[in-house]
Design goal:
With about 180 residues, the chain is an alpha+beta fold. It is built from 4 helices and 9 strands.
Length: about 180
């Protein structure tokens, strides 16, 4: 199949996402919710690209014959920055945005985000058990832990509860992890 990727005509195999195609060609696209072995969920929305002029998530979008994909534009940068800011609003208030601390801060540095306009939304108590320490103040709701628990471990012990700004990862019925 022929597509245009960043103004270059290329041949690609069908069945690969735009993100997969970009990775193969050394084009770096930020992602947080992608994890090897898990189906893409397009939750973090940092992997935005333009497909025929419309923003799409590259992790879950498959190109079609003759399409045009742009991986870097002012529109893409603007929306990646907004999405990164919103993820930081769901993140710990004491985070100093040190790129050595975790993946979100690494991405923030790469995309050039220097200030966060939103105050952190959540303040949670830690859920401590003998085997797991869960600190929702550090969680950005990417969903990797939920999908790993369900798809890889086939346990389905945790899921998202609530909606919007109140959404968080929780064991079912908000039990403690050791329950």
């Amino acid at each position: 199949m022929q597509i245009t990727l960043d103004k270059r005509q290329i041949k690609v195999e069908e069945g690969k996402t735009i993100l997969d195609i970009c990775k193969e060609r050394g084009i770096e696209i930020p992602t947080l919710c992608i994890f090897e072995g898990l189906k893409p969920e397009a939750r973090c929305r940092l992997c935005l690209v333009e497909l025929n002029g419309k923003l799409v998530t590259s992790c879950s979008t498959y190109p079609h014959e003759g399409c045009e994909v742009v991986t870097d534009s002012p529109l893409i940068k603007k929306h990646r920055m907004i999405n990164a800011e919103l993820l930081m609003a769901d993140h710990i208030a004491t985070c100093n945005m040190d790129p050595n601390s975790h993946d979100l801060c690494k991405i923030i540095e790469k995309i050039g985000l220097t200030r966060i306009r939103f105050d952190p939304i959540h303040k949670y108590k830690q859920d401590l058990s003998e085997s797991v320490i869960r600190d929702d103040n550090k969680c950005i709701n990417c969903g990797k832990c939920i999908r790993a628990c369900g798809e890889i471990m086939d346990v389905h012990a945790i899921d998202f509860i609530n909606r919007g700004h109140n959404e968080k990862v929780s064991p079912y019925s908000e039990h403690k992890l050791h329950d």
